[in-house]
Write a structure and sequence with these properties.
homodimer; alpha/beta; 6-stranded mixed sheet; 11 helices; 24% strand; globular
Chain lengths: 416, 416
Amino acid sequence: MVIGGGFGGLNAAKILANKPSILVTLIDRRNYHLFQPLLYQVATAGLSPADIATPIRGIFSRAPNIHVRLADVHGLNLSAKKIKANGHEISYNYLILACGAKHSYFGHAEWEEASPGLKTLEQATEIRRRILLAYEQAEKEADTRSKMELLTFIIVGGGPTGVELAGAIGEIARYTLERDFREVHPNQSRVILIEAGGRILPSFSAKLSARAVLDLGRLGVEVRTNSRVTNVTSSGVWLGDEFLAARTVIWAAGVQPSSLNAQLGAACDSSGRVIVSKDLSLPQHRDVYVIGDQAHLELTPGQALPGLAPVAIQQGRHAARNILRQIAGRQTEPFQYVNKGQMATIGRRRAVLQAGPVQFDGFLAWMTWLIVHIYYLIGFRNRIMVMLDWAWSYLTFQKGARLIMADDWHSYRRKS
Amino acid sequence: MVIGGGFGGLNAAKILANKPSILVTLIDRRNYHLFQPLLYQVATAGLSPADIATPIRGIFSRAPNIHVRLADVHGLNLSAKKIKANGHEISYNYLILACGAKHSYFGHAEWEEASPGLKTLEQATEIRRRILLAYEQAEKEADTRSKMELLTFIIVGGGPTGVELAGAIGEIARYTLERDFREVHPNQSRVILIEAGGRILPSFSAKLSARAVLDLGRLGVEVRTNSRVTNVTSSGVWLGDEFLAARTVIWAAGVQPSSLNAQLGAACDSSGRVIVSKDLSLPQHRDVYVIGDQAHLELTPGQALPGLAPVAIQQGRHAARNILRQIAGRQTEPFQYVNKGQMATIGRRRAVLQAGPVQFDGFLAWMTWLIVHIYYLIGFRNRIMVMLDWAWSYLTFQKGARLIMADDWHSYRRKS
């Protein structure tokens, strides 16, 4: 049984697909697999939700041994080998937990309303709505100060997601919306990227961090490092004594793993990830594997594997293969990570890329980023659609999915 | 000033675009123009919202005399030549009202929760969510009766929208989802189209009505004519003494025009549409034009023009040209409707088409429908995307936009 249809769970199920005499139940709360690395493009109106999401059933329609279930798993009983989903108990022989992570507000859940995170499609369309609505309101606003506040966008967190969001919003402010809004001048807009640590993209080299700051600067993004957010309200962000007025704040700082971890009875690291054995199973339960953002594994002592898609993908495959080994009565093997490098894109023609000793930036890095992401997008159809959406955006500076939809269907239904 | 960015208002503004010394304010509650005739494709997971919606600002970005405003018009004062939008009063010289219509539940507003209409993108994605969720729940349901209720889809209203929805849902039930749901058999699913009148598609010839019933039957759709809905609940539909159990009900019966009509002080017809002069202006206010679904005009006595896109488009252009005539000190001209015919598609390779004495059906009608709709979809980008989406669906029987998104972004945000 596999819980979670993200990169980890999906790739585990793919290894097990069409294996004779193995029955797999794949459970997810959503009916689709989400290509998380491009979620920021939905939030910034470059892509539509359906471009980066694929129905899980469709992926496994030719694998009769994979049973897909739409359900919310809320209970685990590892000694009885049972899980609880939507109130029903289901037994398993082997279990792969790949439930991922959600945003962490460091104990300040009340900040969420004013600064949504970017983990789900709903959050992405909500952020898109807020950005576009801010422009619409700024266009009508006569008061200069209110106008500036409407045109200030703050992104908290200088990791890849924060950098990519800031770049895309900087570009929207600079180019995309310039012609459409007559009462808004690009220089009235501010995009501020806030990072608590000493530099953005801390997992990249210092050289690439500096390069990213430069590239962001060209798109008008101000980068503030060593700045810790102390409060977020609907009117702006507090950094200690300093207040930055802004109507739109997006949270891209820190994640916490699935709350199911608390039910495992296993040791967790300081951020709540389960510490797994070298073969990805739980030390006390060799039939339970925990992978991806939910797990903590150190291949180099003191250095846990990062919460990236390639880690989850490789761990999903490895966990599935270890289960096949166990079924065949063989020994499991320790997980080894093939580091293919990491990338972050900055606006529509720059990126930073690091793969071991190799690092480069600029247009070539951006092209590489583009090819890799299109390649990994699941499904032939999505690849064509996304490529066309991008070609269109690139050639015209237009964003194709600039729709302000209501945040729920009730808001508009009774109006005429 | 033009109120409404639908087919009528948009085409009025296009005529006035780049006309020297004319300043146009185009007001809409939404930031996009919606291609309503294809909304049923979003509701049935064939297209994404962005495929059929275009930001209004983008359409007029090269027309500096058109000012686009996102606002809700809630007051009219025709004698003072003012409108009230978002609490502010705005003056006009000439006014075009093109606010369209919403669904009418014939005085039973309480039916809406159980049977959403199909006028907005939010409603379309809500209907998509309900259809796909019904399948997911049916897949898990052990009780045969509950399963049948989950797999019963009722569409109320046998006009073009109802027929197109029923055909698309019939096709989903027959082909698209067959392989993905292992515990659901196509013959467990029922799609029922309910029409109060004597035949479906009453605006078409009797021959084409009969043909549509036949084509729908091939897709497994049951057509019930002379059946008046007397109650709708979350468990089904009452037709007098008869109860049809169904978890998914969609409302496609009857519309009522914008509530602004009540403020015009003009005569209205029985369904609330304003009776306009032959030149589309109001009899008491020659500087106010009312067009599209909001207006009642009889070119043949006793026969009002129908609420169709071509009527709204032609009226929008005509009203704008009459205003240009008035500004030039010339006489306005009476509106004349060029009837290019009407079409309704049934599933993925049949349609009915009627243009004056010409009428045909089947695959040729469907091809014509396809070409006409792609041609009219605004924007080069949308045309390519929609064509690809359709080509994909046609070749593979897959639907590309099969996402169950939450009905508001809050539902999922605090879950892990």
